[in-house]
Amino acid sequence: MELTPLLLLTVCPLVFLAGFVDAVAGGGGLISLPAYLLAGLPAHLAAGTNKFAMSLGTLTAALKYLRSGKIALRQAALAALFSFGGSALGTALALHISETALKAIILLALPAVALFLFFRKGFGQEPAPKSLPLWRETLYACGIGLCIGAYDGLVGPGTGTFLILCFTSLLGYDLILSSGCAKLANLASNLASLVLYWINGKVFFALAIPAALCCMLGGYLGARLAVRGGAKWVRLFIFLVLGLLFVKTGYELVQGLMA
Fold it and tell me: Quick check: 9 pLDDT over 70?
């Protein structure tokens, strides 16, 4: 496939926006993956190229959160380790589970999450006064990484958002700290998928490299906004991502049932 100016103009601005949104609240793949498909890349090549760019964007955002002291490093590292394995497991499971069934489950779950956030106005605004034993924190962190990493391998979109919600609800972190931890775990699950795509020659590097630079810039600016603006921005963008994911999943489910 040949790299053209039109290809760059189609993909790069949307990937920048995806990196920005992903750094704040996760879910950047909802914007970036359709951009590659819109530009005419075959599905597997689009997915592999997307993973390359988003991995570097997520790394940039993670470093910004880390420098700002907004990552609980021990728990985030454990989640990342299990997220890597979970993503590989989820990719294997995807071959044996009905995609229609998975999308139906997601479609039912998303409004419930949105309603929970809507009625819990103070959710994640401040750290919850939880004093969990170390073994339970460790167990929760590993479980979050494994389960959401498997989801990333199975389905993908919204992974970062679900990680943020899990870190906040289970470990009692505020939304900013949860977002920082989510970046590290999401980076690991992205890398697990990227390795498989790379080995199979499904990364279009001529486009992936400039797209990655745009994604890194978006990731840096998004993380900066989240760290400076507080939980209100994370909360707002989570609603945006949940809405996009609901529309996308609903559309694909209806298309599948009508086919």
Answer: yes
- Cβ proximity of 218 and 17 under 8 Å: yes
Residue that is written with structure tokens 């700290």 in the block: 177
Residues 108-146 pLDDT 10s:
766 766 676 666 665 555 555 457 788 899 999 999 999
To the nearest 10°, report the CA torsion of 216, 50, 175, 115. 140
Question: Residue 254 contacts by C-beta under 8 Å, 6 or more apart in sequence?
Answer: none
pLDDT value for 98: 65
Between CA 11 and CA 218 the distance in angstroms is 13
CA–CA separation, 168 and 179 (whole Å): 9
Q: CB of 19 within 8 A of CB of 57?
A: yes
Query: Which tokens in the block code for residue 153?
Result: 């391998």
The pair of structure tokens assigned to 25 is 């609240």
Radius of gyration of the chain (CA): 17
Lowest-pLDDT choice from 48-57, 70-79, 211-220, 248-257: 248-257
Cα–Cα distances (Å) from 188 to 19, 49, 80, 134, 234, in that order, read: 16, 16, 5, 23, 21
Buried b (16+ CB within 10 A) or exposed e, 130-140: eeeeeeebeeb
Indicate the burial class of 119 (C-beta count within 10 angstroms; 0-12, 13-18, 19 or more): exposed
* pTM of the predicted structure, to 2 decimals: 0.82
93 or 89: which leads in pLDDT: 89
Q: Would you state the structure tokens that stand for residue 207, as one six-digit string?
A: 């486009």
